[in-house]
């Protein structure tokens, strides 16, 4: 049994940060109250559990189904070569995927390895970040609560690429900022700038991360003195150097790089647009944090009755410096988004756009939850997450192999049958233009020998007289192909419809994959 004095022991040395000591950013844990023991595992067990789970996810994705998701297909299509830019998303994920393909030739395995390596890195970086302030028995369960965010545990496995990378770099940048930059280590500002630049090459919404971190630091008197103009200049120059060439490419190819601006649903209709955007933002936050809020609430309600000595009567201690920094970073990120909505008239906000700044809310809340509910609360968190992880594995297996009744999964699509029929009908085609990227990427997967391209990046026009075939899926995209090819090849385009392709889904033979087809004529007068 512990005494009230022991319960009053502070978790961190607040003076260490206030006086400029590096101890707050070191890997040394502070003493914790005996009632807040967390889960007593050897420290190495937490990273091992994280790596084991994502290794299992790699095996599941490799063997559960043979076709590609929407984002995987696009990534395969773009990552066949290195370039300063590919499409509407920054190029870093494509570069990493290209490198992965050089090391692991098996396409499905390579795609799964890269994504799950990035996902594991998120958890490991958050664990290391929390470990700099708290012991492993608290940092471990808290880091695992990232699994309670549907965008990370479910959507990232189902079909995301760039959104995974941006959270990985957000976690890495936050870790480096706390343990290196603010700790005054040599090269800390340079590292912060390099990571910020790489983050901007992962997804544009990463810009929220460095700005939020700097605003949060500036708002804390104990940390504000760590912001040096010289260091900020070094970071800015480093970030600018990293993004220079991809930015040049984007402005040289605006029709490709900025083709997804319409997704922002920008409006100039005034107050109505702002209210709609704010409502969309609130909905996005609820979508991200609703599940952890419910689970934390249940554990809090049950756990307060189970701790050896109630903590409610103790004098509250000041929040740890790291906790205050992270909380203000989250608030700053949300505020920046709200300002952007108010100024830009964005009416449709996607929850994944906010993930790079909101993802830390769950681990941060978990630390406080364990402080109230003790070891019982930590064990309850870990057990709940273990059950949810098992459920995700089972549901993902069904999703990849079967889908829903009447709506089979794209990862089980009969693309090989379509490709075989295509090769027999058009054996001499010089170019096969497939839309959307899902169709083009899957055709590349099963028949890398065929000259498959997308209408967005069709390459140089074939010689006169060579056959060009157009294919499309998910609606009539013939007009888009005509317009896009006409722009890329600077010539008039016409399509002569041909017999469509069709093949049943193996797991649901009553449903067929229907592919429209046409022969492309070039040099047609508009």
UniProtKB/TrEMBL annotation:
Q: Which Pfam families match?
A: PMT_2
Subcellular locations according to the entry: Cell membrane
One Gene Ontology molecular-function label: pentosyltransferase activity
What cellular component terms from Gene Ontology apply here?
A: plasma membrane
Q: Which domain of life is it from?
A: Bacteria
Which residues are listed as membrane-spanning?
A: 108-128, 164-184, 190-218, 230-251, 285-304, 325-345, 357-378, 385-402
Cross-referenced InterPro entries: LipidA_mod_glycosyltrf_83, RgtA/B/C-like
List the GO biological process terms: lipopolysaccharide biosynthetic process
Where does this chain mainly localize? Answer: membrane
In what way does this protein cross or attach to the membrane? Multi-pass membrane protein
Q: Where is the Glycosyltransferase RgtA/B/C/D-like domain?
A: 89-249
Q: Does the keyword Glycosyltransferase apply?
A: yes
Sorted keywords for this record are: Cell membrane, Glycosyltransferase, Membrane, Transferase, Transmembrane, Transmembrane helix
Name of this chain's protein: Glycosyltransferase RgtA/B/C/D-like domain-containing protein
């Amino acid at each position: 049994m512990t005494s009230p004095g022991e319960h009053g022991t502070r978790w961190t040395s607040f003076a260490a940060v206030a006086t400029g000591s590096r101890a707050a950013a070191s890997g040394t844990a502070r003493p914790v109250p005996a009632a807040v023991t967390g889960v007593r595992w050897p420290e190495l067990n937490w990273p091992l559990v994280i790596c084991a789970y994502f290794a299992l996810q790699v095996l599941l994705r490799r063997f559960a189904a043979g076709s590609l998701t929407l984002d995987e297909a696009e990534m395969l299509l773009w990552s066949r070569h290195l370039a300063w830019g590919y499409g509407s998303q920054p190029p870093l994920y494509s570069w990493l995927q290209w490198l992965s393909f050089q090391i692991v030739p098996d396409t499905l395995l390579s795609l799964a390895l890269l994504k799950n390596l990035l996902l594991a890195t998120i958890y490991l970086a958050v664990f290391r970040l929390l470990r700099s302030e708290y012991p492993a028995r608290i940092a471990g369960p808290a880091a695992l609560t990232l699994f309670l965010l549907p965008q990370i545990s479910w959507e990232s496995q189902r079909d995301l690429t760039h959104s995974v990378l941006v959270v990985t770099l957000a976690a890495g940048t936050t870790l480096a900022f706390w343990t290196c930059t603010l700790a005054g280590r040599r090269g800390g500002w340079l590292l912060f700038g390099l990571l910020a630049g790489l983050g901007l090459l992962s997804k544009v919404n990463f810009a929220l991360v460095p700005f939020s971190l700097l605003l949060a630091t500036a708002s804390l008197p104990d940390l504000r003195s760590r912001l040096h103009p010289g260091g900020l200049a070094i970071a800015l120059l480093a970030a600018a150097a990293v993004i220079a060439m991809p930015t040049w490419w984007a402005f040289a190819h605006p029709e490709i790089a900025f083709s997804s601006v319409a997704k922002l649903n920008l409006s100039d209709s005034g107050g109505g647009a702002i209210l709609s955007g704010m409502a969309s933002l609130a909905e996005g936050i609820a979508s991200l944090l609703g599940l952890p809020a419910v689970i934390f609430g249940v554990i809090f309600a049950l756990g307060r009755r189970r701790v050896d000595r109630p903590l409610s009567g103790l004098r509250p201690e000041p929040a740890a410096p790291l906790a205050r920094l992270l909380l203000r970073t989250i608030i700053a990120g949300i505020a920046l988004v709200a300002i952007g909505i108010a100024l830009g008239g964005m009416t449709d906000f996607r929850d994944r756009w906010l993930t790079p700044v909101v993802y830390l809310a769950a681990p941060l809340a978990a630390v406080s939850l364990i402080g109230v509910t003790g070891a019982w609360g930590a064990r309850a968190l870990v057990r709940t997450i273990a059950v949810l992880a098992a459920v995700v594995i089972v549901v993902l297996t069904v999703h990849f192999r079967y889908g829903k009744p009447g709506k089979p999964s794209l990862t089980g699509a009969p693309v090989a049958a379509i490709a075989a029929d295509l090769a027999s009908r058009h054996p001499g085609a010089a170019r096969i233009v497939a839309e959307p990227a899902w169709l083009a990427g899957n055709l590349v997967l099963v028949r890398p020998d065929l000259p498959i391209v997308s209408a967005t990046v069709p390459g140089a026009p074939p010689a006169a007289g060579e056959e060009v075939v157009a294919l499309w899926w998910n609606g009539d995209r013939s007009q888009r192909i005509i317009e896009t090819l006409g722009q890329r090849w600077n010539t008039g385009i016409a399509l002569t419809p041909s017999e469509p392709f069709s093949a049943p889904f193996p797991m649901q033979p009553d449903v067929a994959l229907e592919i429209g087809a046409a022969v492309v004529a070039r040099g047609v007068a508009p």
